[in-house]
Amino acid sequence: MINLGEGINRAATATPVIQAMQHIVPIRPDYCAAPIADGFNWSECLGAATEGEWYLVVFRSVRKESADVLLLTELDDRAFEEARAASGLIYYFKGELNERRECLSFCLWEDQPQAWSAAGLQHHLAAAALVRDMYQTYRLERYSVRKQAGSPAPLFQPLHGEPIPVAAKQTSANQSR
After folding, report:
1. 109 has which bridge partners?
2. How far is CA 108 from the centre of its chain?
3. Domain spans, the chain
4. Residue 34 neighbours by CB under 8 Å, 6+ apart
5. Is residue 97 within 8 Å of residue 103, measured between CB atoms?
6. Helices assigned H by DSSP within 2-140
7. What pLDDT digit, counting tens, does each position of 70-87 carry?
């Protein structure tokens, strides 16, 4: 796994949550397939936070064997830099491909409007335009992550109902459902 959250931890914006997220790691080998709340050490990282609510976007994918890894890396790096420059990105976890070509990455945001704003930026749109060419399947999951005072663990509430797998060959009209 690649820790890209470190790049966000700038002195001017280093909140306790940003600092705590620097220690997020998968806690099971099958984290790519596990529920997002069960695959990482969320309680350890956010346990000290008194309370808060954040917006989480999870990207699960199965990469095609023919995917251009250099192009994917370049587009991902550019989209990350662009998101860092925008406001609201707390942490970006860039997962590694497993033996089945599965990968899980996620972005934790201060709130949903900031995430949506970043999703409309040039480099993110360029990366998103290639999903059908690069992935056999992919799925976006969105959650409200809440940490209540006195609770050791954050709560993960799926947004817009349960996540729906989206085959990479479907049309964009089908993807917006």
Report:
1. 55, 89
2. 6
3. 2-175
4. 28
5. yes
6. 16-21, 42-46, 69-85, 112-119, 122-128, 131-134
7. 999 999 999 999 998 888
> How far is it, in rounded angstroms, from Cα 112 to Cα 146?
13
pLDDT at 139 over 60: yes
Q: pTM of the entire structure?
A: 0.82
Three-class DSSP category at 65: coil
- How far is Cα 172 from Cα 166, in angstroms, rounded to an integer? 10
Query: Do 87 and 55 meet the contact criterion of CB atoms below 8 Å apart?
Result: no
The pLDDT value recorded for residue 13 is 57
Query: What pLDDT digit, counting tens, does each position of 141-169 carry?
Result: 999 999 988 888 899 999 975 444 434 33
Residue 75 tokens, joined: 């587009």
Distances (CA, A) of 129 to 90, 132, 135, 141: 24, 8, 11, 18
Phi, psi of 15 (to 5 degrees): -80, 165
Q: Is 2-175 a CATH 3.40.50.2000 domain?
A: no
Task: Determine the pLDDT at residue 161.
Answer: 56
Q: Given a cut of 50, is residue 115 above it in pLDDT?
A: yes
